[in-house]
Amino acid sequence: MRANPRGKQADQDIVELDSSSPEPLWSQLVQHLTRSLDTGEFRDGFPSEHELARRYQVSRHTVREGIRQLTEQGRLYSVQGKGTFVSPWQDYLFAARYSIAKEITRSGLVESSVVLAQTIVTLERDIPLLRANAGEEVFFVERVRKAGDEVVALNRSWFPKDLGLKLLGVDLSSGSVYEVLEAYCGVVITGGWEKIRASVPNESDRQLLELMESAPVLSLERAAYSAGNVVEWRESLVRDDRFYLVAQWGSEVWHGDRSDV
Predict the structure, then answer these.
(1) Mean per-residue pLDDT of the chain
(2) Dihedral angle sign, alpha carbons of residues 197, 198, 200, 204
(3) Is the separation of the CB atoms in 9 and 45 below 8 Å?
(4) Residue 240: per-residue pLDDT
(5) What is the per-residue pLDDT across 13-58, written as a single tens digit (0 to 9) for each?
(6) pLDDT digit string, tens, across residues 115-171
């Protein structure tokens, strides 16, 4: 018997949903799949529509609705012509500094970056928060961030030249640039802010992000501070099918579906 790399279930794993229940079958399916996602059952690959229909003894229409619901929740994402995949992470709490690198690693995937630029450049525009004007030299880093084989973000960062001179030969193909700043420059990030909006990337950025034409992204602008001074100005484009934000207010603490927050 040939093994299925997507983890096709054996006949004894068939799960019969309750067709007599007032709860729709697609809703029951979502609950079952959510539990499986939470336990990491699909880490090696999400089943096809046919496999899910066979396992749960439901129609393809029911399966598609269940997948659509989980996609809207950010648990799954689809790539045209390739299939449906488990999102690298479930959520981000927009209340403190977060690390894409750490979240990817925590999810069990390999975090990496394709470094497109790591050099001293002459600015073509002012970056006021960095106290850098057009014509001045700064250190520039451009990286495509990946979770496993999937592209999740495009980061462009500008730093003061004196810091950059210490980072020219440093390996930035994985991990957080803030950890590198601390290790090689003795600079600890103490705070910052981030502005987020929706946008549509230009053609070159769309190709780097491996996006379909006209697909939207999250556009982020960030200022990172150390001891009251801005040491990084960052402009990022993040695939909105890989990432979302949760805002919190009041005394209630949001925990999502995770038990380890």
Answers:
(1) 82
(2) positive
(3) no
(4) 80
(5) 788 899 888 888 998 998 889 888 877 788 778 999 999 999 999 9
(6) 999 999 999 999 988 999 999 999 999 999 998 888 999 999 999 999 999 999 999
SS3 163: helix
193-196 long-range Cβ contacts below 8 angstroms, 24+ apart: 193/222, 193/223, 194/220, 194/221, 194/222, 195/220, 195/221, 195/222, 196/220, 196/245
Domains assigned to the chain:
11-86 (1.10.10.10), 92-246 (3.40.1410.10)
Of 63, 58, 92, the closest CA to residue 196 belongs to 92
Bridge-based pairing of strands 245-246 and 92-93 is parallel
Count CB neighbours of 225 within 10 A. Answer: 15
Token pair, residue 235, equals 């402009």
CA distance linking residue 222 with residue 234, whole number of Å: 5
